[in-house]
């Protein structure tokens, strides 16, 4: 007679060999996510950038584009906890952050923490909840802690909020105020997949759904986040990011007199700050120890589009923030690549 000997849980060092190269480890995690998610490469890259930079992401796209599945898969691959909140008009802040509950058997109040206490939080259709709920969530995003009954409870690290908006419905919605939407690091527009990608999605749906495996630990992610903070940023790259933001505030200064009537308010200082931080993470993801102009240019639409307040003229003429940014990119000169600081030059 044979007996099955139960397997003892392995230490984290054995389950996840220490990876010294962040690019290899993150690409391995990205490959595992793509076993479940077809296409949406830009969205996946932006999510990893947000994780490394410590920011949050606002997604805008029609239903059915795998936004929920993406966040759930990301949590499984990185070993974090996943929570989802479906925002509705009757939601109250206590449903989000938690509350104090009286226990008759003990005669005492106990704190019950809400669903925001997880590593990956999906705030589905955030614009369907009233302003109080939106403010409660955005306060947690900014402070990464909640105070209930005089006690402060920090959220787990990492803490990534992925909020979604549906662009095709406006009834029963409460649009996010500009001051609150500015706290998102990026706003990513999620488009339909290509025909070949959609065919692959349909084909996969006919078989067994792939189960993603855990490829990274939270400790690995913390190390990579610290590594992203050590990525070199040349002064000219910083100046380029600041100039892009300034061009959205004072278009006339850059010869964009025809763009000025479409912009009510330009990007806030959070724009270039978030842009440089995100570019650092993207450079690490691409295997470089310094930020290139291409990193800033690639992320600029996602970091700046939701920070531009369009005028009534832009709305009536169907001019979008991306249209404004396209003109800004064409008007602002990029710093020459050969002047950027390389790691060996810094040494």
In words, what does this structure look like?
This protein has 347 residues and is an alpha/beta fold. It has two domains: 19-221, Rossmann fold (3-Layer(aba) Sandwich), CATH 3.40.50.300; 231-333, Magnesium chelatase subunit I, C-Terminal domain (Helicase, Ruva Protein, domain 3). It is 43% helix and 14% strand. It is built from 15 helices and eleven strands. It has helices at residues 12-15, 22-34, 41-53, 67-78, 94-97, 131-143, 178-181, 195-205, 218-228, 235-249, 270-285, 293-304, 312-316, 321-331, 343-346, and strands at residues 57-60, 82-86, 98-103, 108-113, 120-124, 145-148, 151-154, 160-165, 186-189, 263-265, 309-310. The strands form four sheets. A five-stranded parallel β-sheet has the order 2-5-8-1-9. Helix 10 crosses helix 11 (270-285), helix 10 (235-249) packs parallel to helix 12 (293-304) and helix 11 packs across helix 12 (293-304). The longest helix has 16 residues, at 270-285. The termini are far apart. Residues 1-17 and 343-347 have low confidence and may be disordered. Residues 259-325 form the ChlI/MoxR AAA lid domain. This is AAA family ATPase. Residues 1-21 are annotated as: Disordered.
């Amino acid at each position: 007679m044979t007996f099955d000997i139960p397997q003892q849980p392995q230490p984290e060092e054995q389950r996840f060999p220490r990876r010294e190269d962040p690019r290899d480890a993150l690409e391995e995690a990205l490959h595992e996510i793509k076993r479940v998610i077809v296409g949406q490469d830009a969205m996946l890259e932006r999510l990893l950038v947000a994780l490394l930079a410590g920011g949050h992401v606002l997604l805008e796209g029609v239903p059915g584009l795998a936004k929920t599945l993406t966040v759930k898969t990301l949590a499984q691959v990185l070993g974090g906890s996943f929570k989802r909140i479906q925002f509705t008009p009757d939601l109250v802040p206590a449903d989000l952050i938690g509350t104090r509950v009286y226990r008759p058997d003990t005669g005492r109040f106990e704190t019950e923490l809400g669903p925001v206490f997880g590593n990956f939080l999906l705030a589905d259709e955030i614009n369907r909840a009233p302003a109080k709920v939106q403010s409660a969530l955005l306060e947690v995003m900014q402070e990464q802690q909640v105070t209930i009954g005089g006690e402060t409870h920090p959220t787990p690290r990492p803490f990534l909020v992925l909020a979604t908006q549906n662009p095709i419905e406006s009834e029963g919605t409460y649009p996010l105020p500009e001051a609150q939407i500015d706290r998102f690091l990026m706003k990513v527009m999620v488009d339909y997949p290509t025909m070949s990608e959609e065919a692959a999605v349909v084909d996969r749906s006919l078989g067994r759904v792939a189960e993603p495996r855990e490829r990274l630990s939270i400790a690995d992610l913390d190390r990579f986040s610290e590594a992203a903070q050590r990525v070199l940023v040349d002064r000219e790259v910083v100046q380029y990011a600041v100039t892009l933001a300034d061009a959205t505030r004072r278009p006339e200064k850059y010869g964009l007199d025809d763009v000025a009537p479409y912009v009510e308010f330009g990007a806030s200082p959070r724009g270039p700050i978030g842009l440089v931080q995100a570019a650092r993470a993207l450079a690490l993801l691409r295997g470089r120890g310094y930020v290139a102009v291409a990193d800033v240019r690639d992320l600029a639409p996602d970091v700046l589009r939701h920070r531009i307040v369009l005028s009534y003229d832009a709305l009536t003429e169907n001019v979008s923030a991306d249209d404004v940014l396209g003109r800004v990119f064409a008007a602002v000169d990029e710093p020459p690549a050969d002047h950027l600081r390389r790691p060996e030059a810094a040494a």
